[in-house]
Amino acid sequence: MSMTPRQFESRYEPSWVELERGLAALDSGKGGEKKPRKLKAGEFPTDSTPPPTAARVAQLYRQCCEHLALARERAYPPHLVDRLEALTARAHQRIYRRHDFGLGALRDLVLYDAPAAVRALRWHLLVVVLVFVLPILVVGVATWVDPHFVLTVVDAQQVRMFDGMYGEQAGEHLGRTSGDDWQMFGFYIMHNVGISFQCFAAGLMLGIGSLVMVGYNGLLFGAIAGFLVTRGDSERFFSFVVTHSAFELTAIVLSGAAGLKLGHAVLAPGRLTRTQALMRAARETSPVVFCFFVMLIIAAALEAFWSSAGWIAPGVKYAVGGCCWALVFAYLGLQGRGHAGGDAR
């Protein structure tokens, strides 16, 4: 049974006040080492109460993260959510503060914050996956049944280009018609980053822009795949895309989900103003932006130096590709679960 905001605040405020006292003590270098007296339910700490130890502060921080997640989920008043956001941010900065030029913060972002932020978008991800995968299946089957259907998505010049990239004449380098590995590495970064950030930024159009961008990329992929299958080039095409697509296609989906989150904030800000809701959505999706950007760099490197290598046996590429897909799913689905700052329930 959910509590009213007043009941929620009354029940948990003592722990928030205790956390504030503990952070203040740590900041002043007076963090207590003795085990503090455990406060009774609803009892406020007083000036005579010893400040909580560092271990107790960490425990209170984890609890505060859970309280923040509940307050957001139940759409409690903005002043209450803002207070918890400020308190958890302060505690996170104090607990995980490093003197190693930000490497500790980067580690936390990679290991905990990014995958937790992705999992927080699970409903947005579900919508974007459907919008991306369904066109691939529908257009792919339609093109396989009638090869001329590909011309409804791409023009004849593009069809000839894809035929040259994956046909028997592709030669040593699959998936491209010119350029050396390093040149293509730079091209893939610019091209893929451009697509993903378009999917993300288009979310400001009430989320519809992100869905349109993601859906169009699904149409394009399905049309190309269906056409190449009818041409008998399926092995060259799928062995080319199987490895780097684990990162590239996932990045497109993540960028679309993050954009949809922005659009959702604009369309349904709840008790916040649209500007406040958009700023909050931007903060919550910033680790996701970092995640899909890094994935695009990895995808570009694989596509330039591994996927395009025609001398590597398709079976080897399929095996490596399967490992990459398993790695991506494990990272996004499992990494950081149970950590103090992530996946608060």
Automatic annotation (TrEMBL):
Residues 27-51 are annotated as: Disordered. Keywords: Membrane, Transmembrane, Transmembrane helix. The keyword Metal-binding does not apply. InterPro entries: SpoIIM-like. This is Stage II sporulation protein M. It comes from the Bacteria. The keyword Transmembrane helix applies. The chain crosses the membrane at residues 125-145, 185-204, 211-229, 249-267, 288-309, 315-334.
